[in-house]
Amino acid sequence: MELTFEAIAEDSPGPKWRALFDRFWPAYERWFLSDGDHARPRYLSSLRALREHMPELVPTYERLVELAGNTDLIAPSYLIRCSQAVWSDDAPFLARNYDYNPQLYEGVILKTAWNGRAVISMNDCMWGVLDGINEDGLAVSLSFGGRRVVGTGFGVPLVLRYVLEFCTTTDEATSVLERVPVHMSYNVTVLDGAGKFVTAYLRPDQPPVVSAVPYAANHQEEIEWVQHAKATRTLARERFLYRQLRGGARGPEDMIESFLRPPLYSSAFASGYGTLYTAIYRPGPRAAEYRWPGATWHFAFDDFAEGTRKIALGAPAANAPSAVAPHA
Length: 328
Hints:
Layout: E1 2-9, H1 15-32, H2 43-53, H3 58-67, E2 81-87, E3 93-99, E4 108-112, E5 119-124, E6 128-134, E7 139-144, H4 156-166, H5 170-179, E8 186-191, E9 197-202, E10 209-211, E11 215-216, H6 226-232, H7 234-248, H8 252-258, E12 275-282, E13 287-292, E14 295-300, E15 307-312
Parallel strand pairs: 1-4
Antiparallel strand pairs: 1-15, 2-3, 2-11, 3-12, 4-5, 5-6, 6-7, 7-8, 8-9, 9-10, 12-13, 13-14
């Protein structure tokens, strides 16, 4: 199976973003209307919510709605299997695997400056952020929190967009994550240019829990959704990350390479949880890097080359050493 990744740079929303909308909107519209014409929030209710919780993002939202043809529809919501960790020794970085169904994934790396601050991010729902870094060295990533509770709030990728657009430090990002409501449970890991990191457990029915934990998988303080936890091996992955950060990894490169091997790397694409990419965000040099078994793509704010790459998805490279998975 092949997946095409595309790198696009456009400082202000314009024809390149409109082309993305034209490409992806038919599928999003079918999903959006799948539960009925009025089952999801529309333009005015979304605008009111943005004005209340993330008012600085309103001009961007209105510009994108205008580019999209002033449609009354918006989007998202999903379950994912992901792993993420902060290497906090010399030259800290945030590394993460994004595991998801390749047929439901955009594959767009987007460099923008929509609100004056440059951002490099993996795109979602055409303006959300799965993970990324801004020009101040603030890096973020998300993973599903392993809870089935659904409430009233924003899709987390939009919150991450807001964080990268308007925050410069982990403390500022934490303030946003603590006050903006989310509609499902997610784990967000944050690292800034000073090396400060947190992981925030966000949930729609309880206050968020923020702590200086440098890793996350797909559960929060306790396992609540047992079936999902077993299917995604979230405990095994969390324990593996803990051991790697406690000395199991021989160095930063070994830590990164472990994301390309089991138990972190998954080739279970038929189950919708295969690893689509590994992202590494380096606050020091303000750089982003995406890896697959046998392939790497580098980006920086002053060196961002647009283009496309076809990546063969599947099992890790045959000659890669296997990591030993801890017992679940």
